[in-house]
Amino acid sequence: MATTDKKWKRLSSEVGPDLKLFRARWDEMQNPRNEKSQKMIILQSKDAVNVVAVSPQKTIVFVRQYRFGIEDFTLELPGGLLNHDEEVIPAAKRELREETGYVSENWEELGKVASNPVFMDSYIFHYLAENANAKFELALDDGEDVEIVEIPIEEVKKMLNAGTFQHPHTISALVLYFAR
Question: Which residues cross the membrane (predicted)?
């Protein structure tokens, strides 16, 4: 049985290729249970943010965008990676404004979760932006093409319970939002 006091020992580490959003690293790790070692891949990345933006009309702001990994569109909360040396809350405000044109004066941290602890070293920080209003034009990156979709809060809750959302960061943020 695995226990937290029996951490795996890193025997060596080898830097891998830069993969645009990630840098690969291979760590030779020793299992404390049997002393055997295995090469593990770690994807190093900047932390990320996403935002549950609630409008004065009690809708949640989503973006629909094409995701290359699944070759389909997803409906997800606005968000993205932190820029170099950027703090978390300014990044959340920036991502909301860039991807949706919405801004808010009322921010609350909902929590953070590991992006994918199986092979990634980063976290996603979830925020709530209440009374969010569209005030600006979108400022999308060259690789972004989004459609803004507002959905009433009660409908979002039904969609979450029905398994409609495919992006794990959207799911974890909505779970934290509805649990508060």
Answer: none
pLDDT in tens, 13-61: 999 999 988 999 999 999 999 999 999 999 999 999 999 999 999 999 9
| Dihedral angle, C-alpha 63, 64, 68, 71, nearest 10 ° | 160
Residue 86 lies in a domain: yes
Looking at the structure of the chain, the number of domains it has is 2
Structural domain containing residue 143: 48-179
The CA distance from 58 to 161, in Å, is 19
3 lies in some domain: no
CA distances from 40 to 4, 20, 25, 32, 120 (A): 19, 20, 8, 15, 11
Predicted TM-score (pTM) of the model is 0.91
The torsion angles phi and psi of 52, rounded to 5 degrees, stand at -90, 100
Which amino acid makes up residue 59?
T
